[in-house]
Amino acid sequence: MINDPIVEDVYRARQKILDECHNDLAEWIERLRDAERQHPQRLVTRDDVQRRRRLKQEHIDRK
To answer: What digits encode the pLDDT tens for the residues 7-60?
Structure first.
């Protein structure tokens, strides 16, 4: 198996969060919800994705 430093970093971050949440998925989900409430501007909605796709397609169509 090939070692990828980025993937390894993601695994370490995931494990750190799990450790902080005592391996409790409900606690992890609550932590995520708290972060969403504190930083709503960081969320990407389905509408955001669709709008970006439309803009990208409009840009392609203009060429």
So the answer is: 999 999 999 999 999 999 999 999 999 999 999 999 999 999 999 999 999 888
Distance CA 52, CA 62 (A): 15
**Phi, psi angle pair for 29, to nearest 5°:** -65, -40
How buried is 31 (Cβ within 10 angstroms: 0-12 exposed, 13-18 middle, 19+ buried)?
middle
pTM value is 0.61
Cα separation, 57 vs 51, in Å, equals 10
Residue 14: closest CA among 26, 5, 23 = 23
Q: How far is CA 63 from the centre of its chain?
A: 32
In the chain, what are the domain boundaries?
A: 5-62
